[in-house]
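Lab notebook page, bench 4
Experiment: in silico fold of construct C2
Operator: M.H.
Input chain length: 137 residues
Purpose: comparison with the prior construct
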Amino acid sequence: MSTTLSKEQLIQEFAAANERTIEIATEAAQRGITSKQSAWGPREVIAHMAGWEVMATVRIPRIVAGMAPLEEPDEERRAVMNDAINTMIVTMIGDQSLATICGILARRTAQRRTAQDPRRQVLPTRRIHLRTNRRRH
């Protein structure tokens, strides 16, 4: 007999799974487990989860609002794109601590828990303006 969960229950289950994964990653790091060559350690796994969570918080509201999901139909091209995104995420964390990265994942998960209404307004894209200190001659 299968059990059907409500959307709220699914979101709660997802959040609980993320919290448990953070606990496991923290315990693994405390035991000295780290990344080795091409194998990810706890920090990289949590960064991967946080990165994809950030992407989901941008994509899912738009999809719910009617945008077609952006998916690559070709399996090889999809794999290359996923590898590129994963590499970018892990590269961008730099030397940040596991605790910092866990905080990013926890905050993004909390945002998903509080933003359950699919009718919420899609936020506009933010633009960053860089100022330069140029001397005028």
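Observations: Residues 7-114 form one domain. Confidence is low (pLDDT under 50) at residues 118-134.
Next step: discuss at group meeting.
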